[in-house]
Every structure is written in structure tokens, then in C-alpha cells.
Fold this sequence. Notes:
single chain, alpha/beta, Rossmann fold, six-stranded parallel sheet, 6 strands, binds adenosine-5'-triphosphate, binds magnesium ion
Amino acid sequence: MGKVISFINDKxxxxxxxxxxxxxxxxxAEGARVAVVDVDARHSCLDWAAVADNxxxxxPLMVGNSHSNAGNQIxxxxxxxxxxxxxxxxxxxxxxxxxxxxxxxxxxxxILIPSLPNPFDLWALAxxxxxxxxxxxxxxxLPKTWIFGSAVRDNTNEWKDxxxxxxxxxxxxxxxxxxxxxxxxxxxxxGRSPLVLPESSKSRQALIAWAQEVKEITQ
Length: 219
Ligand SMILES: Nc1ncnc2c1ncn2[C@@H]1O[C@H](COP(=O)(O)OP(=O)(O)OP(=O)(O)O)[C@@H](O)[C@H]1O
Ligand SMILES: [Mg+2]
């Protein structure tokens, strides 16, 4: 049985899709069998895979499912893949699609919540926190959930301030973060990820450190 890792945040533009495909490239490079379930009707991950495929780059198995049966499909995929990565939709609260996210939460072994490093983004997690914690209450703490900092500007105090605010956060914070860099849009726009950049690339190094931490906590 594989592991289901879902990237969920009701807030838009917090790098759910970029993180999903970047982690997929790392795990595939390690030889893992990876499936991605794209829950967002705007299907960013499906588009990314189509570009990758056109350019002859390896892609994970891709599935689009924005319905409340997504959880069942995820559980089936888990039987055949080492990792099932789920890219959640944003604005599920205002668009009345809590059912879809609830179904994903139920099927997840782990949840990663990308958050931009500012207090507004942390405070915006209230609704999702309630949904995850209600599930955790009946399962004895599953799915295990972390928040991680994304698009963090190096050479500023953003990350330090975010770490200081971690006691206000509803879930633990990963120690690694994904830095703010045009390397992410540039490489994902080609159906790849910063993993293809030279070893000296800071984005590549940060992505690897982050993916390694994700691998460790999801062992
Ligand atoms: N580390 C990064 N540094 C700079 N820009 C980034 C980074 N990661 C992602 N981006 C860019 O930020 C924007 C939002 O990222 P992305 O689409 O992955 O977020 P999302 O949470 O999936 O958004 P949505 O809610 O619309 O699905 C995109 O333009 C993306 O290319
Ligand atoms: Mg997205």
C-alpha cells in the first residue's frame, strides 16, 4: 500500500500545485511509482503533465477528479502506487465544495498545508483546521498534518517571523521551506521542476531538502 499525501489550503495561490508537481518529480527521480490526483477543476497538474509529455519528460500517472468520490479513487490508486499526491482545490468553503475536501481528508495518510509566510495566511486556516481536527478526533490523530512555508523570500525576516508565530499555528511547521524564486514558475511551465537545474541552484537545493523532509515525516 502506498502513501497518500495531500496538499490542501482553502486559500488560492499558495503553491499547492507547484509543490505537488515538484514533489512528484523528486519521488519519480528516486524511482518511486507516483500518481497525482488533481482535484482542482482548473487542472493545473494535468496541464503541467501535458506539457511534460509533449516535451518528452517523464510524468506521474495523472487523474483529474473534482467530485466527492475523489477519496474512493485515491484509495484505489494507493494499491498500485508508492505515492498518491493530491492537489486540492482552493475556495472550497465559499464555493460549497467542502464535501470534496472532506473526502480527500478521509483518504489521506498525510496532509501538507502550504502557507505563504504571513499571519493572514495562518489565520485563514481556521475552517480547514476544523475539518482536519474533526477527522483526527475519530481516527486517533490521522491524517498527520503539517504546515510548511512556501514562496519564502530569503534575505528577509519573513521566515524568522513565521517561525516565531508557529505557536499560533494549528499544526506543526516543517523545518524546511520552499523559497520564493522564478525558478519554480519557469521550470514548472516547461513540465519540469527546479530539480532539473544545476546542482548550484538554490531552488534545487531547497526543493531537495524539503522533499527529503517530506519523505522522512511520511515514512
Ligand atoms: N516557490 C515559488 N516562488 C515563486 N513563485 C512561485 C513559487 N511556487 C509557486 N509560484 C507561483 O505562484 C503562483 C501560485 O502557485 P500555484 O498555482 O502552485 O498555487 P496554488 O495554491 O495551486 O493556486 P490555486 O489556488 O490557484 O490552485 C503561480 O504563478 C506559481 O508559478
Ligand atoms: Mg493549484
